[in-house]
Amino acid sequence: MLPNFTYERPGSVDEALEHGSSEGAVLHAGGTDLLGCLRDGVFSAKKVVSLSGLEELRGISPTRDGGLRVGALTTLTGVASDPTIAERYTVLAQAAASAASPQLRNQGTIGGNICQRPRCWYFRGDWHCLRKGGDTCYAIAGENHFHCIFGGSGCYIVHPSDTAPALQALGASVRIASRSGSRTVPIESFFLLPADDIQRENLLEPGELVTEVLLPPVASGTRSVYRKVRDRGAWDFALAGLAAVVTMPGDSVETASLVLSGVAPKPWRAAEAEGALTGARLDAETIARVVAASVAGALPLEHNGYKVALVRGLMEETLRALA
C-alpha cells in the first residue's frame, strides 16, 4: 500500500526545484521505479513532485557542436525509436529498446532510468541493510546470484540501468539543475561506488534534478552495439551486458570504449580491455587478448562466478560482430 503524501504538479523547472528542496520530497518522472519503492516501503516520502507538466524536459534536438540533447523526460521508447539516435548512437537505441517491457518503456524516462534504485532483493525487501542505514550486507553470505563481481565494497549491488552504460560508452554528460544554478557532469563521474557512499548510487544532492543528457558528436568510422544476457528474452534486467563503441577509420581501432552492465554497482568501464583493443587490428588474436583483459580484477561471490564467463562470452561475441 502506498503511504500518505502530498502531491504537487509544478509548471516550471524552478517551481519543481522549489518543491523538490523541501524535506521528504521525491521527484516523480515516469514513476515506474519510484511508485514501487514507495509501495514496498524501500523509502518514504512526505511529498511527491510530479515532473509530467515540464514539457521543456522532453524531446531530442541537435546541439551546436553536432551532438544531441535528450530531455530527461524523454521516454525510453522515444529514445529507442529516434532515427538519428538509431543511426548515429546505435548502442543507445539498442540499450533503450532492451530495457523492461514495451509498456514500461512507453512510461519510463531516460532520466529515471539512469537514476533508478538498486534491484537487490535485500535492499528492496524487509532487511535493514547497509544501503538503508543498517550494518550488514546480507548478500555476502546470502543469495548473491545476481550481485556484482566488480566494484563491491561492503555492498554488492549492481546498477540496473541499460541506458547508463551506453551513455558512458558514448562519452555523454548530464545537466543537473538546483535552486542555486546548474552544472554539467560527465556521466562517468555521475555514478558512485559503495566505497564512495554506501547509501547513494549517484552524486545528486537533495533538491537537484537531472534536466537533460548531452551526447557528443560521433566521429567518422564509429561502430557501436549493446548486448545483454538475461534470464528471459524480455522484461528482465541484465545478468551481464556490454556497451561497446569503437572508432575504426581504417583497419585498426583508433579508440575504444567498453562499458559493462549488470556486474558492478555502477556502469563498469573495462579499462584494461580498452587498452588491449586500442591501436590494434580487430582480429582473432586481438579479440582473445581483449577477452582475457575484460575480467581482470573480477571478484565473484559464492553464487555468481558464472558472470565471469558471461562477460568473456559477451566481449568475444560483440567484438566479432563489430569486426
Summarize the structure.
This protein is an alpha+beta fold. It has helices at 13-20, 34-40, 76-81, 83-88, 90-98, 102-107, 110-115, 121-124, 163-170, 187-190, 271-277, 284-293, 306-322; strands at residues 6-8, 25-28, 47-50, 60-62, 68-71, 173-178, 181-186, 209-215, 222-229, 240-247, 255-261, 268-269. The longest helix has 17 residues, at 306-322.
Description:
With 323 residues, the protein is of the alpha+beta class. The protein folds into three domains: 55 residues, Uridine Diphospho-n-acetylenolpyruvylglucosamine Reductase, domain 2 (2-Layer Sandwich); 118 residues, Uridine Diphospho-n-acetylenolpyruvylglucosamine Reductase, domain 3 (2-Layer Sandwich), CATH 3.30.465.10; 101 residues, 2-Layer Sandwich (Enolase-like, domain 1). It is 30% helix and 19% strand. It is built from 13 helices and twelve strands. The strands form three sheets. The protein has a five-stranded antiparallel beta sheet with strand order 4-5-8-6-7. Strands 9-10-11-12 form a four-stranded antiparallel beta sheet, with helices on both faces. A three-stranded parallel beta sheet has the order 1-3-2, covered by helices on one side. Strand 6 and strand 7 form a beta hairpin. The longest helix has 17 residues. The mean pLDDT is 96.
